Amino acid sequence: MAALRGVAPWRGGWLPALQLIRRGSKAVTRHWKAMHFQRQKLMAITEYLAPRPAVPPRCLRPRREAPQEDNGYERLLRRQVEEAFRDNRMIAICQYNSMPDEDLVLMRHYLRKHNIQVKFVLNEIVRPVLSQSKYKNLLPLFVARNILLVSPEAKVREMLRVLKGVPQVNLLGACIDDTILSRQGVENFAKLPPLEAAQGQVVGALELLPSQTSSLLQRGSAHLTALLDQHIHQLQTGETGSTANPLPSQSSGAH
Questions:
Q1: In what order do the strands lie in the sheet with 117-120?
Q2: Tens-digit pLDDT profile for residues 177-200
Q3: Which residues does the chain have with pLDDT short of 70?
Q4: Gene3D superfamilies of this UniProt entry (predicted)?
Q5: Of 65, 97, 211, 245, which residue is the least packed, with the fewest Cβ within 10 Å?
Q6: 11-35 pLDDT, tens per residue?
Q7: What is the DSSP code (8-state) at residue 168?
């Protein structure tokens, strides 16, 4: 306190309790040193060696894994998949990406207007069903998260029109009337005319050939009939002309 009496009062302020003082870094004194030769021999001698089995593994019988019993819920899902492929004419396989719930509800609403149902399926359920059916060529499409668009009618145009506004759902392929089509094949199928118009075109084409054949067969007889009628007409005009010409000469001779 006596030493601080001669110091100005504004210099004798409060000092912090913790002060950081930078010190010089110490030199590294620990370096890697090779193990002594005798210690290396001791470590090699005392190394643990696992005992060999009395019977080689190749001589043992392989263990038979117990067959896993199917879950009842899985059987139900497989049955639903089988019914979907059996009872519907159009089954479209689409890749599903995450989308808001509102957009999903809106998409299902628009598809339901055209009698198209949306089914979420698991690859673990679909692949065993398809591998034992005639649709096994559709297996490469079930890789990621997929959904099925099924309909008892081939509403391809309506489906493509709805999917055009939903970029999160990508069409991979479809099975229409037991015919597997790619994405391009589905688009080409949508460009075809309706079934009634196609049937009318086929009926018209089938009726055209018999009508042409009938006209060709009747052309000869009709032409012959026309020639005979003309010949008869010429004969009749010739006879009437020969009988009418002598009359004026007779009348002139009488005068």
A1: 117-120, 146-151, 90-96, 169-176, 179-182
A2: 888 999 999 999 888 877 777 777
A3: 1-29, 66-70, 241-255
A4: 3.30.70.1730
A5: 65
A6: 556 666 666 666 666 666 677 888 8
A7: T
Size of the chain in residues: 255
Kindly report the CATH number that applies to the domain delimited by 74-184.
3.30.70.1730
Query: What is the C-alpha separation between 190 and 159, in angstroms, rounded?
Result: 10
Nearest to 107 by CA among 60, 163, 66, 62: 163
Tell me, yes or no, if the pTM score tops 0.70.
no
Amino acid identity of 128?
P
What is the Cα–Cα distance from 66 to 140, expressed in whole angstroms? 30
- In whole angstroms, give the CA distance from residue 192 to residue 194: 7
Which residues have a Cβ under 8 Å from the Cβ of 135 and sit 6 or more positions away? Answer: 85, 175, 180
The pLDDT value recorded for residue 251 is 44
| Average pLDDT for the chain | 81
Distances 241 to 45, 234, 246, 248 between C-alpha atoms, Å: 147, 10, 9, 12
pLDDT at 28: 64
Domain boundaries, the chain: 74-184
CB 70 within 8 A of CB 128: no
pLDDT at 216: 78
Contact 77, 129 (CB under 8 A): no
28: its two tokens:
């590294």
Partnered with residue 148 across adjacent β-strands are 93, 119
Distance from C-alpha of 81 to C-alpha of 123, rounded to nearest angstrom: 11
- Give the 3-state secondary structure percentages of the chain, helix then strand then coil, rounded to 5: 55, 10, 35
Q: Is 94 helix (H, G, I), strand (E, B) or coil?
A: strand
